[in-house]
Amino acid sequence: MPSFSSGASPQKQQHNARRKQLIRQQRKSLPIASVKKRLVEEVKKNDTLIVVGETGSGKTTQLPQFLYDAGFCQDGKVIGITQPRRVAAVTVAKRVAEECNDQLGKKVGYSIRFDDSTSNATRIKYMTDGLLLREALLDPLLSKYSVIVVDEAHERTVHTDVLLGLLKKVQRSRSICADKNGKTSSDRQDHSQSSTLKACQGIKYAPLKLIIMSASLDAKCFSDYFGGAKAVHIQGRQYPVDTLYTYQPESDYLDATLVTIFQIHLEEGPGDILAFLTGQEEIESLERLIQERARQLPPDSTKIWTTPIYSSLPSEQQMNAFKPAQAGARKARAARKSFESSEGDHITLVNVYRAALECLEKSKSANAKEKTMEKALNRWCWENFINYRSLRHARDVHSQIQGHVQQMGLYVSSCGDDMVQFRRCLTAAFFLNAAMRQPDGSFRALATGQSVQMHPSSVLFRTKPDCVIFNELVRTTQNYVKNLSRIDPLWLAELAPQYYATED
Ligand SMILES: Nc1ncnc2c1ncn2[C@@H]1O[C@H](COP(=O)(O)OP(=O)(O)O)[C@@H](O)[C@H]1O
Ligand SMILES: [Mg+2]
Fold first, then answer.
1. Is residue 248 part of a domain?
2. How would residue 310 be classed by pLDDT, with cut points 50, 70 and 90?
3. What are phi and psi for residue 490, nearest 5 degrees?
4. Average pLDDT over residues 78-82
């Protein structure tokens, strides 16, 4: 009889043991490890603390674990750590769960919009700053958190900044609630304070600990904003870094980047090169330039591979190495054509979504097993150059929204093939994201007056709609609008009169 005590083979067990050992060593060698005790003391002493340290010093992965070990999660309280990017929240949570030798979603979890891996047992919770903002709407005192860590604060994204303002208020409210009698240091009890007292309803709250983490040395603006909060600096780096500057400002930094990449490639030893640029267009054009230049290198020189990473790239591709699939790329464009609709990107996406559901239905009637259905869908995605994970994500989002709508007691029905109704619905929902074509062919966003261009990825690119609704505004070398649908400009006044109705 085989033993069931452990599912893993001896080799696997050995591998796991080695990995655990390696992780222990890595953690010990991080610059933050040597100041664990001091950091915990500072958090105990100060309600607001600013932690500054180089990238890689261990702030994001280690500090929450230190605080957990120091008892900040007693009474079931949670340590929340916000990240500006979804992918960071996910990867860091996975790493920390592994460091804690626990499954993701137990002690350590993450929560991002439409994807929640936390449970009642979760004490260290990584999340996007946008998600915490939403939580604060439902629970203005953020009562389940003992500590909030605002990470990457130096990036100063809109969400992070709004969050800092909000957390300042939450801290004040919690400290009022902490005082049993509701006495405040000043006699003045303004409206927000008296409503806070109502919200506490006699419950005693511990003050909210707030930690602002930043990789930039300029902690002063955060310190000033929080009434002279204390800042601690973590010294040291995990890896040696040389900083080299150009003597003169570069007028064409893209070209300078290209030259530098080939300098490193031809003159330095083995290793990878990471180049940061401002947006998708720059990344794509640098990639093209590198490939062109690489073709001119002597045939015996080391090959150079380029792997672009930007947020709108599907996550598999973000992780994957670059694959030169020329024929595939051409085919992919052809495949996209079959879903394309000159009514715009949203309808194109709906066409894809419906075709996928049809494929699911077909495989359902042929074979009832869930696993086989998913397999068939995966295959269908492969054949049609659709990203399977994105499609699954769309299905999750759809079923969650459907759940919410049903919970609200609303009736759910489909517009069927009536795509005018569909576009009118988009207009009613996204009326703030409308853009009107100008005589010179550019567009003007109506709410902000900004001049914008259609993004080349849109199916409407090279067409001339009078008016569009957009979902995304990206700023690279220019302002671009993405995910577009053509609408009738008259619908705006009809469906959003509060915003667009004219005087007469
Ligand atoms: N997802 C990951 N996979 C493997 N190692 C990781 C991961 N995230 C972090 N690490 C390790 O932890 C170290 C500290 O990372 P982190 O806590 O993110 O530092 P900081 O927040 O100060 O930039 C990194 O140098 C790396 O060795
Ligand atoms: Mg970090």
1. no
2. confident
3. -65, -25
4. 98
Give the pLDDT score at 45: 96
The residue whose CA is least distant from atom 6 of ligand 1 is 95
The ligand placed nearest to the CA atom of residue 54 is 1
Residue 186 pLDDT:
45
3-state secondary structure of 352: helix
Structural domain contains residue 2: no
303 DSSP assignment: P
In a shared domain, residues 220 and 114: yes
Domain around 395: 345-407
Does the pLDDT of residue 304 top 70, yes or no? Answer: yes
pTM recorded for the entire structure: 0.65
Of ligand 1's listed atoms, the one at least distance from the Cα of 91 is 1
174 CB near ligand 1 (under 6 Å): no
Q: Considering the domain boundaries, does residue 340 fall inside one?
A: no
Would you say 133 and 162 are in contact if contact means Cβ atoms under 8 Å apart?
A: yes
Please state whether 502 falls in left (phi above 0), alpha (psi between -120 and 50) or beta. Answer: beta
- Give residue-wise pLDDT tens across range 445-470: 998 899 999 988 888 888 889 999 99
With a 6 Å cutoff on the Cβ, whether 59 touches ligand 1 is: yes
The verdict on residue 245 lying in a domain is no
Task: Please give the tally of structural domains in the chain.
Answer: 4
**CA distance between the termini of the chain:** 87
Co-location of 396 and 425 in the same domain: no
**CA 62 to CA 36: how far, in whole Å?**
9
182 ligand 1 Cβ < 6 A:
no
Considering 407, 428, 447, which residue would you say is the last residue of a domain?
Answer: 407
pLDDT at 189 over 50: no
Range scoring the smallest mean pLDDT among 54-68, 118-132, 139-153, 371-385 = 371-385
Residue carrying structure tokens 């509060």: 498
Position 18: which residue type? R
**240 — alpha (psi -120 to 50), left (phi > 0) or beta?**
beta
| Ligand 1 binding pocket includes 154 (Cβ within 6 Å) | no
Give the number of the ligand closest to the Cα of residue 28: 1
430 and 397 within one domain: no
